[in-house]
Design a protein that fits this description.
Blueprint: E1 5-10, H1 12-21, H2 25-28, H3 30-54, H4 62-77, E2 92-94, H5 99-107, H6 119-122, E3 125-126, E4 137-139, H7 141-151, H8 156-160, H9 165-171, H10 181-205, E5 209-214
Antiparallel strand pairs: 1-2, 1-5, 3-4, 4-5
Helix pairs in contact: 3-4, 7-10
Length: 215
């Protein structure tokens, strides 16, 4: 299954609640994710039953299982049979697998960096429980404004010039296999960076903070 990073607008009352009570499953769409994961497992078992009992073939290998789970995950990310997370009152941005590339292009590092440059992976205050890839992080209104100011002048063209498949692979940047990966990375950058800049800027203009988490 892929590692996906989400951002969500948070009002002042949301931020106060996160500090006081932590983060609920409903805040993150975790219930939907767990339901989808369960459905994927059931689909896989159903396919295997047909394949083995119906066709008289061997059970799926670990590699085949992984491939099918990836297929189900791709369907999920493209929205097949999945209710969208969030609401007009609390917009959610799904960066899919572009989060690590974006952090590298902002900071030049895989995980570290000064704030607000490194906000995507290192900013904010941890709240709630570990979801498997770390705890959700809450950005204050000020931190959101700082991140928005950092993002605002950046352009896709200048960020594209920073793409370095060899360096990114050496640092272990997610989904970077070789220089040929850069073609896909350029497409992801052109798709997701403008959305990120617009999303964070909108939160800042509305006086909101944000919640960031990974599933």
């Amino acid at each position: 299954m892929s590692m996906t990073l989400y951002l969500k607008h948070a009002t002042q009352s949301d931020l106060a609640r996160f500090v006081r009570d932590g983060v609920y499953d409903a805040d993150l769409g975790v219930e939907e994710e767990r339901h989808i994961a369960g459905e994927s497992f059931l689909r896989l078992k159903e396919l295997e039953l047909i394949y083995v009992a119906g066709e008289g073939r061997a059970a799926f290998s670990p590699a085949a299982r992984e491939m099918l789970f990836d297929h189900f995950d791709l369907m999920r990310r493209r929205g097949f049979g999945v209710k969208p997370m969030g609401s007009p009152a609390a917009p959610v941005l799904d960066l899919h697998e572009s989060w690590h590339m974006l952090h590298f292009l902002f900071t030049g590092d895989a995980w570290e960096g000064e704030l607000p440059v490194a906000t995507l992976l290192a900013g904010g205050r941890e709240v709630g429980e570990d979801l498997g890839y770390g705890r959700p992080r809450m950005l204050s209104v000020t931190e959101t404004e700082d991140f928005a100011r950092f993002l605002e002048p950046l352009q896709v063209a200048s960020l594209t010039a920073r793409l370095d498949g060899q360096a990114m692979k050496a640092l272990g940047v997610y989904c970077v296999q070789d220089e040929e990966s850069c073609a896909d990375l350029r497409d992801d950058l052109a798709r997701y960076f403008p959305r990120l800049r617009s999303f964070v800027g909108d939160a800042a203009r509305k006086g909101r903070g944000m919640l960031i988490w990974m599933l």
